[in-house]
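Tokens in:
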């Protein structure tokens, strides 16, 4: 084997830390971006937020030399110190003398001992003088009450002994967010027995000294106790709470209704398999329950008005408010695209620390210089992130101008490559920019990816956006006859009448993406 030296030219991409940070910041959402900024502010001493400058007040220096009105001078005189009583008299007109003569008081502002007797027990109407710990009416009205708290309040009105009250409390705390008792009764009993054993051991009792028969007897007692408490729970409001499954939840709600033929038929239907009810198979349900079809349809309509999740209205759901990154405002015949100033962090490098680093050398100084450079890179990458978002958003608005004028039915086909070629960026960059970034439009707030869609052929040789086709399908379903809903084939034919070639399978896919049920489930009787 002969050894030798050779030269070879090759190219490879080196991702510097600055480039890696730029790519990572570009794909972050608004919330993740805010968290990244907070973390960087905590870690990097050279980074700080710019103080927000308050707007100039209209009553500031511009009106400092404005003449004072008569009312203001009278008010100033009544609140001025008694050491200068003649300052206003020299400048005041004759009306001020009549005002002074009409004042029947003695000039004091002290309260007499009897001033608090009239209305002294009445609380002040304003909120400014209330105790800070006293909740206002608005606070009480907006206070969230959980399902467990609502049930505990009802339990206070029941005549129960200590064991029954403890068992009812245990069941209430075992409910899930929907109001169901998801755990089997046997598991609840075993968990309660384990708690008793741990409590007995913690108190220094004879843990584990109970015999097998004693444990079985205690298990039976707890089972009877929990079943009794479950019966109390099933009679609480909201109706259906504490059910073990959907069928029991529906039965509990039906039992709270009046004893009508529809209610009795609904109880019989709940005894059948739920898939028959979900398919709204009227004929099979009528045969299985020995009912006529009219009564079966009325019972299904009654069941459709019930609440499958009794605890839903008590759920304290924290809704994530979508904060748009870009604002689109109609200006004249065009549209103005601008960044949302509320999501743009105001950062700067601390001048004091940066100037202090000049002229210093050594290992410690080199480390601080690196942190200073990281702060500058971070600010630059954030600026580049928002500049890229603005460029992409402006290109989207230009391509989808018809949408901003007429709505989603006027959406045109658009793919990532078109915007990438127009801006001279890579397609993956456009994908990162349009993910988890939102735009506020005259028709609502949408993710930037919403404006991209595949194309469908038309009879005229043009293309229609899949987003516009979904909007048409939604419009067709909204205007259909409830007793005769449109099938996927009928919707496909209606789209062909509009000049859009869309197969039945494509219609079914778009309908499912819109969360629209099939025709046989949308049918009402």
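Residues out:
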């Amino acid at each position: 084997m002969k050894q030798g030296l050779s030269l070879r030219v090759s190219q490879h991409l080196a991702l510097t830390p600055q480039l890696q940070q730029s790519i990572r910041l570009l794909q972050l959402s608004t919330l993740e971006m805010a968290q990244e900024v907070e973390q960087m502010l905590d870690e990097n001493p050279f980074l700080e937020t710019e103080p927000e400058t308050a707007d100039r007040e209209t009553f500031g220096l511009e009106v400092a030399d404005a003449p004072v009105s008569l009312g203001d001078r009278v008010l100033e005189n009544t609140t001025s110190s008694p050491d200068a009583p003649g300052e206003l008299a020299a400048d005041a007109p004759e009306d001020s003398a009549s005002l002074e003569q009409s004042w029947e008081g003695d000039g004091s502002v002290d309260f007499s001992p009897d001033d608090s007797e009239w209305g002294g027990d009445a609380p002040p109407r304003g909120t400014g003088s209330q105790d800070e710990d006293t909740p206002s009416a608005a606070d009480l009205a907006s206070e969230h009450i959980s399902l467990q708290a609502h049930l505990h309040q009802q339990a206070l009105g029941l005549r129960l002994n200590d064991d029954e009250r403890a068992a009812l409390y245990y069941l209430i705390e075992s409910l899930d967010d929907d109001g169901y008792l998801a755990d089997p009764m046997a598991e609840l009993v075993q968990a309660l027995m384990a708690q008793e054993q741990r409590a007995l051991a913690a108190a220094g009792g004879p843990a584990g000294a109970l015999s097998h028969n004693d444990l079985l007897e205690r298990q039976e007692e707890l089972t009877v106790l929990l079943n009794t408490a479950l019966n109390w729970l099933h009679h609480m409001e909201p109706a259906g709470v504490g059910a073990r499954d959907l069928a029991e939840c529906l039965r509990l709600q039906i039992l709270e209704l009046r004893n009508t033929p529809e209610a009795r038929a609904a109880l019989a239907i709940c005894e059948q398999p739920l898939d028959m009810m979900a398919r709204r198979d009227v004929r099979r349900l009528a045969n299985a329950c020995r009912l006529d079809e009219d009564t079966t349809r009325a019972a299904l309509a009654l069941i459709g008005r019930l609440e499958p999740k009794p605890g839903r209205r008590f759920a304290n759901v924290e809704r994530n408010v979508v904060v748009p990154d870009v604002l689109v405002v109609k200006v004249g015949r065009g549209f103005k695209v601008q960044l949302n100033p509320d999501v743009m962090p105001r950062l700067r490098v601390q001048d004091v620390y940066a100037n202090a680093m000049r002229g210093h050398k050594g290992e410690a100084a080199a480390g601080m210089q690196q942190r200073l450079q990281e702060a500058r890179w971070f600010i630059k990458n954030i600026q580049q992130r928002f500049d890229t978002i603005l460029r992409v958003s402006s290109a989207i608005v230009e391509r989808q101008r018809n949408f901003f004028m007429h709505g989603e039915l006027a959406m045109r086909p658009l793919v990532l490559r078109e915007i990438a070629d127009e801006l001279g960026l890579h397609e993956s960059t456009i994908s990162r920019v349009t993910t988890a970034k939102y735009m506020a439009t005259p028709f609502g707030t949408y993710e930037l990816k919403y404006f991209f869609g595949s194309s469908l052929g038309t009879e005229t040789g043009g293309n229609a956006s899949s987003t516009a086709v979904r909007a048409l399908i939604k419009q067709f379903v909204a205007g259909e006859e409830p007793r005769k809903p449109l099938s996927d084939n009928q919707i496909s034919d209606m789209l062909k009448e509009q000049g859009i070639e869309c197969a039945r399978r494509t219609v079914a896919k778009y309908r499912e993406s819109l969360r629209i049920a099939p025709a046989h489930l949308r049918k009402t009787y």
